[in-house]
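Lab notes, practical 5.
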Amino acid sequence: MKYLTTVIIFILSVVLLLYGGSLFTVFISLMGVSFLYVILRQLKKNREIPLYIEIISYIITLFIIVMKTKALDYRLLSVLFFINLFPLFITSKTKYKLMDSLTISSLVLIIGSAFSVMLYVREKSILDVLYVLVILFFNKLFYKLASYYIPKKSNKLGISYAGVICSTIMSTIAGSLFYYVVLNKFNSIPFILLFTLLLSLCSVFGKYIYNYVRAELKTKDLAKKFFSFSSIMDAISSLLFTFLGYIIVLTIL
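Output from the prediction step:
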């Protein structure tokens, strides 16, 4: 059943990605809110989060996503942090702490921004989205292969060093070839290699963050009941940070 869920989500994602438009916007918005819901659900197991904080967090996340990076300014951030800090002002007996407020605000900002960038990049060009997906695919594929066939040496979060090295190299090569052959933006080869390498590292960083959050929440699977397959959450996490890296690196370079 869990593999069927994965296949259905994958097929739906591809179809809507190719179609684009309003349907893709709705799909990405639902994915973003769902991703936040999964994490907040785990946070609530050992933290007290007021219901109105949850609801407002979903609304602001949705707002950031659908605005496609156009509304992410200091005013929205100020409202986000003030609302999440508000319970601390009205009572001192709440189990809702300052770190809970900062954690939720950060989650809303990162998730909303990342999914918003996905919509922005798709609106710009579907080939750019495919470029990011090629990097993610080869990163995940060779991480799995290297982790399986090479003797396991990993850190405390279970990240395989061999997997990181092999996946970064192969995804950089595959992504650079796709960029050079398909996108053909007349950039120099060193630029293409550097750009792709940085995005490959962003993908690895996304996996690291996913494992870190999973360890902090003391759970093996963040989405066992929701997505039915942990690899989906892992892939989405890597995808989020790869798209964030895309817009940041593109701005810098």
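Observations recorded by the TA: The mean pLDDT is 78. The chain has two domains: 1-124, 126-253.
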